[in-house]
Specification:
This is Type III restriction enzyme, res subunit. The protein is of the alpha/beta class. The chain is built from 28 helices and 34 strands.
Length: about 850
Amino acid sequence: MPDRQIFQNKDLVLKVSANYDLGRFDPNKYEPFLDALCGDREYQKEAIRETVRYFLGGEYRNLKELAEKNYREGNPKLREKYSSFEDFTAALQLPDKFSCSLDHATATGKSYVMYGVARIMLAEGAVDRVLVLCPSNTIEAGLTEKFRILSAKRELKDLLPPDSKISNPGIVNASRTIQTGDICIENIHATYIRTKSAIEDSLLGKGERTLVLNDEAHHLMNPSDTALKKWKEFLLDARYGFQFIVNLSGTCYIGDDYFTDVIHRFSLRESIEKRFIKTIRYVAEDSSKNEDEKFQKIYDNHVENGTVKYHEVKPITILVTRNIAACKRLTEKLIAFLARKERDGKNRAANKVLIVTSANEHKGNIPLLQRVDDQENPIEWITSVSMLSEGWDVKNVFQIVPHEEKAFNSKLLIAQVLGRGLRIPEVYRGEQPVVTVFNHAKWSGSIKHLVDEVLEIEKRVHSYPIIKKDDYHFDIYNIDYRRVEKKGDHPQEDQYKILDKGYINYSSQAEVLEKITRYIMTHSGEESEKTTPIELKLYSIEEVTQDVFNHLYIFDQEAGTAYSRKFPREKIEEIIRKSLEDIKDTTARVSEENRNKTLAAFGVIRRKGAKSLRLEIEARNLAKINTREIKKNSLGVGELRRDSTIFWDDYTLNEGALADRKLMKELEGDETLPRSALIKVDNKYNFKTSLNLVLAASKPEREFIRELVKEQTALKVDAWIKSLDVGFYSIEYSWRKGEHSKQGSFNPDFFIKMGSDIVVVEIKVDGDASEENKAKLRYSRDHFNRVNELQKEQRYYFKFLSPSSYELFFKRLREKEYENFKSELEARLEDP
């Protein structure tokens, strides 16, 4: 059985029936109108036809009915993805509305589709007015202009059927009352700013006769701020009663999941093939060591775009970050790099960079996007955040740089970022320009999946409480702690000799190094390499000498030492020169790496009586939790091939979620799995846990559970539960790692109920007597001693176990002599 389910987006599109009741609706009479509106763009016509046939064909009453017909009759892939129709329904955003989504890639003319659907619905008299909602003023202005241009075309009006109910709609916004026959285009914010908008006064109680078109609807499904979160609330507001809702987007993803209500799509790949948008080249392999090297490669691509590839326009590079703070930091670094690289001053460099975010301080930059393509405009670089609600029609983008993983860690964000660079400048229409994505190599697979429209879902097994004939739930006491800062001193250490050799082990260095980046074209899969000469940062001997001396001098002033006298500038310089001689370097310059080695060599001195702060925890209130409260845990099916195990019994196949039961039956019949992957407890009365199944992540855990479900042990145990790695029952601890104090928390692996006693077990491999585990033992013993002091209802015993002590532990457990039991590992952890 494959460990993952793989779907293509096209597999998940809902098919609208080709049937329509001519007594209710005749779509054929709109064909001349569609030809005039869309020209030869057949995909736009298909989208309009599908949408109005869904609304008016008489086959459905809402999205739920469309989804059910596809699930039960038409689409086996939906049944593969969702184990029940109920699961599928739960994934629908607006199941009780006449709702749907259209997935059309960036720059493919979504506005024509919106306009076509609006005009036909008005002409048919199915609605009296249309409300077009979008996430920003910029998009509102763009749509208003496009709709007014289309409405001014007399031939479109003339080609509508003579009996059209509304054939000449007004294009308005919500600054005045929305009349019958109006198409109102508004920013979503106007739906809740009552003082400036006529939406509430115009549409209350009229939703059934209003068509709502949501542009850039991924913002509706993935709201990034409070205003956008109100978008869906507005659509569901019973005071309006909206029924006809169409969502349009070129990035129909909720995170990595594809929209569940798409009825038509024109994909990114189709758009590339039709040359409506640029093709994409992305990084498959890159050897950059640091940010400066990446900047140099990005700069080299940028210069090549302007001087060689696309010199008829002014190419632009955009850099994308995860949030506003990161964007501001990146902008400062980019300006500093450009000033250094072009030797043209910081102010001139800053004039070439435009930062675009939703922050108030950057609001004035958003209108400037309309002019950045102009040759005389100085802007060549744009920094931005990944989820930007503003419209983006810049055509001269030829390089995109997702600067951090969080700016590029879902299909939605990847599609959003790529969409900024896909439009083709007019001068290159009919050609296929390339936009380069200078991504981290590890994201290359994500880009490929996006363009190939692949949805890959890892199959996962879930563990959670279920109802059993015998109640195996029980209470556990924990303590609510608070953190307290404690001041302390590091013990003073004697001064020691440094640099006895008289030189430092430098590595070989160079001023310029040629580095290779390997790229892949998304459409063809063709690979290419590009060599970029990287200028390595070098420092003069005098600069490094002064840096080291300053370091020692400041240290002496603070610590009362005399290192700057022991190592005057002349001595430091002599050491650096000898270090360069050792690698046969005659440049009298020091690389960044060797400079850092030099500073490190002189930086090993400990401060005298250095003060430190450490966090300690203090007990506050006793808290009772029940095993019913444990959250769902899961395990990827692929992990079963790598030493993980599922313990299960008859309850597993009869109780719990249908999807989990179905997957377990598939796993039971999978002969390719290791024998250790599935272990059935034949007698369900020996499986004394409240969980539907238990997941063991390693061999030590697996062998412990084997002992726990043996009949002779089960007879003596009341109940047990395997805890989670995170959450449920956490114990904080602190330990020293090298010179630093570390804070952490862990969850003990097992809680075993023996009458009024609770035996708590933490599992480790044999011999794992690390300092961290010693700390866990100390803090856990202290914790459970406090629990025992604060209540008398239960008695807790904490045990650190490894496989070598299992047999003796379970012997003592069955004999109820576990109180003073100490494993081999626990004894080693007690050693200083």
